[in-house]
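Record 1 of the preview.
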Amino acid sequence: MPETSIEKQQKTALGPTTGPEATREALIAAALDLFGANGFDATSTREIARRAGANIASIAYHFGGKEGLRQACAQSVRSQIDAIMASAFARSSPAIALPVRPDIAANMLEAIMGHVVRAVLISPDAARFVPFVLREINGHSPVLDTLYRDVMEPTHRRLCALWGAAIGAEPESEAVRLAVFAMVGQIIYFRIGSQIVTRRMGWSDYAASEADQIADTVCANLRASLQMYKTTDTGKERP
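->
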């Protein structure tokens, strides 16, 4: 799997990762692939070590065992999602803090969604960590608690704050929280349903041009949704 731009920048600044740290990173990458494809229980440490090109004993050495490796995978996912969202929020309007005017909040949401779509659809890292996250969610694993607390809930709250500001509604109302889930759900489908989408669209894969088209579609849906919520009482907390 090719390196991301972040990985290339890190290697340029710090030099190539070698020795124990390289082994640790290879084990996490292999575990993300295999846990995502097969599930935690169905993946053996021997398979992970073989995929990583490492000795099976290195899993216990670096992580204390298979469960420790699972937690390390979760921390890696957290770091990657944090990086995507930090970049998205910075690109949307780095000099503006909440609360903001409705039009500015709407523009920020659109910029964030456009950036996230492109990052999630064409990043090799996202192709690796999204299946892992979905497996953990569906399996009700302990990792879900960590990801929810550290990544999902705070990110969702930030998006709700912008959505609420954009339509003049209470950010923590049920309607706003559900609307944000619906918005994010589009992106998740385009990632996990890529084989269906590309086949139906006649694309060979997601490249920059395809990601741009999807981002334009998601942002158009976002604008339409915000307009609908502005012209109805749906975005307000019901008594």
